[in-house]
């Protein structure tokens, strides 16, 4: 951390300024080793000529004023000034333009700057994102930066690996590498500048924005031609974090409760408190269930208590099924009872504008050390404990997928999909308003939960983006994390005052940072659910070589397109493997990739080509394209594929296999059979099976499970 930078920032604040002047920005850059052109501050026309002569012609002249942030708009920039006479005239012109633009502006003078250019114009900057905090940006720069929006983002501070990855993460990456014979940009210089901007904003959180645009990147280095630094009006507030051990202590009691109380339990059908009671009882929960209702002595055959304080013994979880107005008093009693988790089904809090009421219950929960799920949720399921703490329909198909949703409607869709597909789940959890427990807490639990092998989350926002990223980075080493982020089209952020800020005002920040963290992002609800259903049953690929085996040429073309769209690599088939495949397909078929066995082939052709694909170690994943024929009917194909895949997996040949089935309605039953036997298969689509395979690959790469 630089003492010189601290002095500059403190001086600006003492003067009531939120923007540094250009000379101050240069000093900050100098302190962090960020290259800028030679320059000086002229306070007279003669002084400007003296500086220009020393620097060397041509030069750039820029107004220096704490009150004029957009210099070009004020007529405060002249480029390519090539003589002493032009500098003298330019100085007077810029001062006059600035005074005409803002008669009351404080003018420090005119910056005389070395004229730089050549190479590529890029932008390097940083913003303070409301979700993720300090975020560094890199992309194409210059005057069209906000039009092209070819930019990528990472959390600050960055590692060398992060900054180098950013150079390859924009669409114009090939341009920087030296496309069409042009000299490549100095990657080391650019990477270093990106890192140093990240270090600057991490060291000084009061810096709200940094904008280096343009940065001229050539084969000989990188120079920031223009520097703009904005300070935040208020000092940043650090997000409080609960220690991991403390989170787990409460989450384990919430998901493995020995006793559950239902506050607002009812014997009357149609009441939420009745539905919760019935689901707990009929769902087979083996712990104690305590109905709480001051007007009843017995509910659904169980003794009822007027208050949770009257229940003998400990209680781990309290499910609230009472109106919002009665929640604070009931939560006080639950807290005094030592409850670990409060499941807040009631609505009527922040989602309706009752922010104060929500804050009140949050403070009560914190006072007693209670973790609160919700409010405004449908409850939660945890199948290993036969726990249906919800007013929705019960669900009992145990499996290894944990699903969470911020919306009750999405929660019901998750439930319906799970039921229709018989997808085994470990948990379904509503998070609602996320007044307390959020995705970070749930990921911390699912990370160490042996019953969970995959996590899928629908979210509309994140309370603590950095906390979420840290949790994801731990989990994805072992388990895929799938995210459906609602609101992709706009974040509703305030209009930013810099190029970097404007570029960060949409979903791109979420997309880049979540992807870099290892999240598998789903474009839609069905995609999220299909990824969750499919990824746990697919083996992890051991390389990038994907091979398509198809009975229809048209399907092969569409499957090839889908592979490209999903970032998969179609294998270049070597001559010996090509010859091996040709031995099994008719002369009018086509080897290569896709391998077209043609439509009239018997089951043996499918079996032989599939087995070859599974046994050759150079092939890492298979995409099967089937179409309905009387020679190999759908169920014959399904049973054959399931048998061959099972036999080869028993021999240690574990490769992902996905299938696209085209045909009459019989292909639906065939796909169900394949899914039941560990092969991902979809009818009437070439896109979906490949998208699922692409999702598996994205996770495997992020988890570091791919060789090399």
Low-confidence stretches: 491-499
Largest sheet: 7 strands, mixed
Give the full name of the CATH homologous superfamily of the largest domain. Succinyl-CoA synthetase domains
Return the structural class: alpha/beta
Number of helices: 24
Q: How many strand segments?
A: 30
Shape: flat
Cα end-to-end separation: 36 Å
Domains counted in the coordinates: how many? 5
Domain ATP-grasp: 26-62
GO molecular function: acetate-CoA ligase (ADP-forming) activity; ATP binding; metal ion binding
Organism: Herbidospora solisilvae
InterPro entries: ATP-grasp, ATP_grasp_subdomain_1, CoA-bd, Ligase_CoA_dom, NAD(P)-bd_dom_sf, Succ_CoA_lig_flav_dom, Succinyl-CoA_synth-like
